Amino acid sequence: MVVPTQQEFDFIIVGGGTAGNVVAGRLAENPNVSVLVIEAGIEFPLEVEAISTPSQAFTLRGSKHDWAYKTTMISRPDYERVEKPNTRGKVLGGSSGLNYFTWVRGSAATFDDWEEYGGKDWTWETTKEYFDKCATYHDDEGLYDPKFLEQVGRGGPLHVSHAELVPELAPFRDALSKAWVSRGEKLTEDIHSGEMHGLVHCMDTIYKGVRSTSGCFIYGKPNVTILAETYSKKINFEGTTATSVTILVGGEQELTFKAKKEIIVAQGVYESPKILMLSGVGPEAELKAHGIEPVVISEHVGQNLLDHPIMPYVRRLKDGYGAENLLLRAGPGKDGSIAQYRKNKTGPASSGLLELVGFPRVDSHLAKNKQYTDYLKANGNVDPFGPGGQPHFEIDFVPMFSDAFQWHFPVPAQGDYLTIIVDLLRPLSQNGYVKLNSTNPLEQPFININFFSNDLDIVAMTAGCRMVDDILTNGEGMKDIIEEDYPWPMPRGSDEAMKRQILERSQTGFHPCGTLRLGKTIEQGVVDAELKVHGAKNLRVMDASVIPVIPDCRIQNAVYMIGEKGADIIKAAYPELYATAP
Ligand SMILES: Cc1cc2nc3c(=O)[nH]c(=O)nc-3n(C[C@H](O)[C@H](O)[C@H](O)COP(=O)(O)OP(=O)(O)OC[C@H]3O[C@@H](n4cnc5c(N)ncnc54)[C@H](O)[C@@H]3O)c2cc1C
């Protein structure tokens, strides 16, 4: 890291992650504007083979590029579980450098629910162009019907394409597609228009066999200064106006950089609330408990943490239907995959391994549960898990044992396996939070995701698992290749035993958001519709923290949208700088 001699920048972006780099790159489109990006991780993550090679993504958990948070996953009177590591990307590009690639935007109805917090500027209609502005979609082989895809990507720097269809996995894909349809569900390629229902070929932030990250927004821009491998310490204020950022270099040396215009916090859902609290913006009791001088009392800072709980489980496949021998176990298959990837970045190693993803509703399974039907009646027959007709679940089918989702179980020594991830998209447990453990900026915050604080989420998860099981066990094609559970039988028949399994096996879907949510007032949230921190000046937040209602799919496309829209909001505030900018 070379410390810049320049002490002042027009804009300082604190956190060079997914959204932060989008904002930095867009603001730097005026070559006369200077931008500083402060990032804790390394500057060139794509030089790390495990990061750039899609099939190795699952190995990054717990690596030195992972923030590896200690996290309370569940905290109920009858069950508690604390886990470590909970993964977030610590590289330039943030979690876009460690995630599992899928590129989905979500349902219009869910983004319309954002209006309650952000007003008219935060609805499907007023955000949808930004889901696409960041990306360019490629279908080099012409495999997909362009009519469903023409709205994906508008010449943005981020290259996305459909998942590599590994030829060796074609029998698995065929069996799953057949089974899905035979149980009354549909296949689709159209999940980009605001409605998502069916089993779809997944789109990924992968192109030509290499991961795409948000770093592409800023590399090579001379007016963006990147301070990698440096930690933010504090935002400094004059009154309630944010003026500068103090950073830590090498763990000890402090440097302060002044922002001539604004400071944009983009450290992600755990570190953004942390730096605000360390800087005096946060709940009164929390600031007082740590002896921090308040700048703005803002009770929602660190609150409203949302995430998707997932139930991962594994079933054995008939030999030859999984990717174990191509990617997991030493032998000629794996050697061949590695050689092919080294030669031209193709083959199994170029795959993110999520080729098929399902977005079902599970009404008929929910209807069998009295707790759910009582709730529905009391709720005026409005389904809480998909009130606008949204899918209840995202179901990921990975035809290989994947320990990234279930690290408590050993990798099986032989055989082929299917990892199933049942991801509850609109959980009713919405009371997670982030607090300070201390005032040391290098110490991780305290995180409680609080999954399953509402029992109905367990009912829904049970229904989701049963829906998937029905497809795998009874569906045409799959029923001939699906075998026993691993490592022990799932107690599918019993609600009580399923509850225990879900509490014990569930994990994060890696989609936390909401800890600095949008709000029309400081009583409702932390940032206003222009993503400005309520009560402060020259300070905005642009990352997953601002999301008020969790998207009904994986969330990176929504985070890129926030970066793009956020950048345009800033540009509009400085017409003297951006009136003629693209
Ligand atoms: C393992 C995993 C798998 C996922 N899979 C998918 C998927 O398949 N599809 C999908 O859509 N989404 C996926 N996601 C979610 C998605 O990637 C994230 O929601 C999104 O990238 C978050 O973006 P962000 O800008 O909010 O934060 P981040 O991208 O995490 O950026 C925050 C940045 O701030 C930096 N930072 C933090 N603290 C400091 C500090 N004190 N000083 C300096 N820098 C700091 C971090 O190093 C990081 O670069 C996944 C996430 C993970 C972790």
From TrEMBL:
Belongs to the GMC oxidoreductase family. Keywords: FAD, Flavoprotein. FAD binds at residue 91. InterPro entries: FAD/NAD-bd_sf, GMC_OxRdtase, GMC_OxRdtase_N, GMC_OxRtase_C. It comes from the Eukaryota. Its cofactor is FAD. One of its GO terms (molecular function) is flavin adenine dinucleotide binding. This is GMC oxidoreductase. Residues 89-112 form the Glucose-methanol-choline oxidoreductase N-terminal domain. The keyword Flavoprotein applies.
